[in-house]
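agent> fetching stored inputs for the flavin mononucleotide docking request
agent> found them:
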Amino acid sequence: MKAKRRVVTSGPRPPAARTPPPKRRPTVRRIKSAFATIPSGTATVRPVARSAVPPAPPQAAEPAAEIDLSVDLGRGLVLRNPILVASGTFGYGIEYGDVVDVQRLGAICCKGTTLRARIGNPTPRVTETPAGMLNSIGLQNPGVDAVVAKYAATWAAWDVPVIVNVAGESVGDYVEVVRRLEGVPGVAGIELNISCPNVGKGGIQFAIDADAAGSVTAAVRRATDLPLLVKLSPNVADVRPIARAIADAGADALTAINTLSGIAIAPTRTKPLLGNIYGGVSGPAIKPIALRVVYEVSQVVDIPVVAIGGVTNLADVLDFLAVGAVAVQVGTAIFADPTLPVRLVDELGGECRTRGWDSYRPFIGTALPKRAGAPSAKGVEYRP
Ligand SMILES: Cc1cc2nc3c(=O)[nH]c(=O)nc-3n(C[C@H](O)[C@H](O)[C@H](O)COP(=O)(O)O)c2cc1C
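agent> prediction call returned; pasting tokens
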């Protein structure tokens, strides 16, 4: 018997029938669909000091009284604002309760959760890099049952939706974790971390192969009615066919990007620095790559795209919106300033107010190609 799922919107929409992949430029349709069910005036924000952002138009009209920052990520997952915190950088949300008003966030993506407890990778697990960091935490977590037992009741009492980030080593793993989250009050959605080795298939990551990415998404889709976000890896030659396979398999939204594969060398120069040798690069250093991925993916899928990668200020948020993201996650920057995500909510509202807009939606997609079938939708990009 399933428990009733906590609904985070005033008007959940029924699961939509899957539409075939769009043949022409889908961006406008996707952006509209992300806002189709949102009542206006659902968020009010105060203007505060802003980061460096493009200048507001000089003819800005009278400031709007209320700014609508809400965004629909599909299947009834409507966020009050488009600023989320990224998996692995904000714990389970509870840890930050004394520092930040977590209820003001758009959503919290919790730490990666697996079927069984994992102790994580050998140390050292993190090191700084120019304009970022390298981590190989190795999905240390207590396992899905312990996560539910320890945190779900608290999440259920919160206004902010919590999206559980799910990882696995086989399709069966992912499906079982999601089954155990299905119907749990406090779990608002699933974000699939598919940058994990598929042990039964020679350890090839799900995220780097369109068939594997589509298969795991389809299997999870069959197992849950929860809103399903799937997180893209940048460690591929062309992300577009993978994004399409995931969308066709029934994901409600894409998140992009996970970390880039990298290594660091120990001071002795006799071995790699991290205990796991390999780690994931994150932070401002990866922002241009994340922008490129979001730009490409936004042109080939018809579901919302949530951007992640190197966000440290409002200008970064606006850049990601310009390439088609409808929302943004903040990750590594939280380690330096846990108050940043909430401040960005205020700054985004303030920027709309300065421009006389009652919504942030005009920021979305402004840097995408104006014509259908642009080279960036087809796979013709920069070649060195
Ligand atoms: C310490 C650390 C732990 C992370 N753990 C996870 C994880 O468990 N699952 C996941 O999907 N992504 C994880 N990530 C990736 C982030 O969610 C995010 O995709 C990436 O760091 C890029 O964003 P950023 O540059 O803003 O940090 C982790 C990142 C860091 C730095």
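agent> quick read of the result: The first helix runs from residue 27 to 33.
agent> awaiting further instructions
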